[in-house]
């Protein structure tokens, strides 16, 4: 095969002709049941879930009340991408989302890459939501059991820690807890999460050296939702609409009640950790918006996709952004931002204020909300596989449509297994970041696809087109303004980034990396320099060292004197530079995009979407880039081993 075959493209005309043929003979045709309000409801169902009930807590802890600006920035970036999705969906109204769009714009190889990335996005996204759902469900059940035991003298057993936690969280938590206790911290002073992980690991059934720790509730909800998605689009739509109504009512109730408990003093300082603290929550906040793109996978099941898809996407983003900002202000007003580093922030805040009825209502609503997110994600992935199978890139059985339910039956069942098994063992942080980078990559390619096709005359246009503004008059100015701000008002951090200056590790990082002998040396040193005499009794190295962190200069001096190797105290050289590689990729890409925009008169909105999403990718850790690259390499092996020679375009 010639190299050019890697970039063979499908035409919009051929895609539309195939859809008409499917509809005419009923072969592989999906049922058409969706209108604009249903699409908006699917978008709200997907967006308002783990983000507002879980990850908003960590983002608020990092950024303080100023996290609302991150929600606003992310919403704007998603809106830019939504314009590109809407234009493509109007142009190519079929299942497949960014995969199909890339096939038209870039050719088969890029289409495969984005399809493979979308498989990861939806699978990992489902795993994330299932884990979050499990956290809320088990918390709710434990509260119910405790109340029954207390009020009615029942003797019910709580759900075992090893049956409600993933393997990696338990394993890593056990290691960190052991290191901290070795450093003098008592078990009672460990965080709740570390205590649970330690108990899960030590009480779990074992087979040899293997500890059987698995998130059983996550498995349960995935099986239940997969069965509903398999049953039909109409049933999924009805369930989604019902759950959206319930959770919107609950969120409005939370806002109404919480507003009476706001203490404006909690909004000071507004940005306690500066811009860096706000941006630290990029992954968590962006994850809160993942899902609106899943609407585009249902294009083939819309009554009027050219009209309704753009409306559904935009209304979903607007409604959810307003709710996110209000919720963030209410949460950070009710309690200090410093208390919000928890997995269930809404539940935590009302429980802390002793509003037990509201806590119960929130617990129930969170279970419903996250189930609706899982429904949308679990509905999107089989339709990606179905589209790839139709093109010959996956085996034919993936495009099999159930004769009665009119759903991609085989792909739906496989999706259930692909999501359910990893959900038993993977932890929340890892899967959240992997889901974010896969989604952002899809957004980048969709925005780039609109830019590539903008000047081509032979492409049929849909009813929706992104408003055109010439970017060459805007983007160079924005780049210059950004450089001016970086070197004029943030010069210390900018020069530290450019020069790769050595950074001092945080206290917890240092302490958890010590062996027993090193811990004893560090303790002896801290006792010697402790003028406050806080070392009486059992030593707690983390507290002893972290108390200096409020004073940056003093902390640096204390760390410099620690009697341990510098590699444990500092991060420098390539070990530091590697974490900056994603940002350097973004900066170099930004220069190239600026030159491209000036040369080709690119449309501003999709270009800003591309830049915004690429920036958010750069804020993710280098390890996420490495894991994502490994996933793509596995996909390329499958493409060159099976898909390339079985592609329907190879037989034309």
From TrEMBL:
The chain crosses the membrane at residues 39-61, 67-86, 210-230, 242-262, 274-292, 313-337, 357-377, 407-425, 431-453, 473-490, 581-597, 624-642. It holds the Pfam family AA_permease_2. The keyword Hydrolase does not apply. It is found in: Membrane. GO terms for molecular function: amino acid transmembrane transporter activity. InterPro entries: AA/rel_permease1 (IPR002293), CAT_C (IPR029485). GO terms for cellular component: membrane. Residues 604-647 form the Cationic amino acid transporter C-terminal domain. Keywords: Membrane, Transmembrane, Transmembrane helix, Transport. The keyword Transmembrane applies. It is a multi-pass membrane protein. This is Amino acid permease.
